[in-house]
Amino acid sequence: MRTKLFAPLALAGALLAAPLVQAASLTLYSGRGESLVQPIIDRFQQETGIEVNVRYGGTAQLAVLLQEEGRRTPADVYWGQDAGAMGAVSRANLLAQLPANIYEDLPGIYKSVTGNWVATSGRARVFAYSTTRTTAADHPQSIFDLTDERFRGRVGWAPGNGSFQSFVTAMRVVHGEDRTLEWLQAMRDNGTKVFRNNTVQLPAIADGEIDYALVNNYYLPRITANDANFPVNQGFFAEGDIGNLMNVAGVAVTRHGRNQEQAQQFVRFLISQEAQEYFATEGNEFPVIQGVTQNPLAISYDRALQVSPDIDLDQLDDLEGTLALLRRAGLI
């Protein structure tokens, strides 16, 4: 069981003291969306002269691709959007050991116990809701409440999304296979509407298609930054509910990559002050180092920490088991 030490710590000077490397190129497999991460990749290229060739795709898709490619992979860096995918690739022995001074001063939840990946940001699972068609008295206290008749046809989810799949893995860890499958099937039978990703669920609430959605905390502030009257808000289930899972995006150097030094430099850059400010203010995610200004429109970090379930993120590595369960439930 992990200790709930999630507050960002000071980043030691050695963490940023990356050795100078000759300008070259590296290949990045990114499970993070292009619109969010390409600007910070561009900044890395500008500052280092290292060209980054990016292959974008789903986090799970790229994890599977790395396993299929093995020693033949062109990837130097793998950037996944959840701890489960990072753990799956690590378990397949496809990640290089990182220098200790990259991760040694980060709290435990922000790094792998094996030392081969580190978090680039944190995020929380929430439920989004209509501010015009729901009241506080209507809101679910547990994610298991959403199978009730009163929520029939009113809830949205994205079973193909990597963060959702990592949440399902967490439910399997905490509540077991049978109860998780029962919940998935009950949600399906209760008319839960399937969306291709998290982003489109929020406009669906505003348009009246659904009243609730299961998403991550950072999508809504991206909308309300431009529309303060957007009729959607978000909240948490009761304290400790698995629906409040706190997860992380992570980055690693691949074991068989040909540009190890450049790849390590990229990892260091992603946990630098500049990159962390970007993730916090533009992505509305939680930073992994101290002293980073957060977006005032973002959900309260302290509240997210208070209500998060106590679970070891290193246990979320059975992606294949989760995908198999989702197939059994007829969701992917």
TrEMBL record:
| Signal peptide start and end residues | 1-23
A family per Pfam: SBP_bac_8
CDD domains in alphabetical order: PBP2_Fbp (cd13543)
**SUPFAM superfamilies per UniProt:** Periplasmic binding protein-like II
* Keyword annotations from UniProtKB, A to Z: Signal
InterPro entries on file: Ferric-bd, SBP
**Family assignment from sequence similarity:** Belongs to the bacterial solute-binding protein 1 family.
Protein name as annotated? Iron ABC transporter substrate-binding protein
Q: Which organism is it from?
A: Marinospirillum alkalitolerans
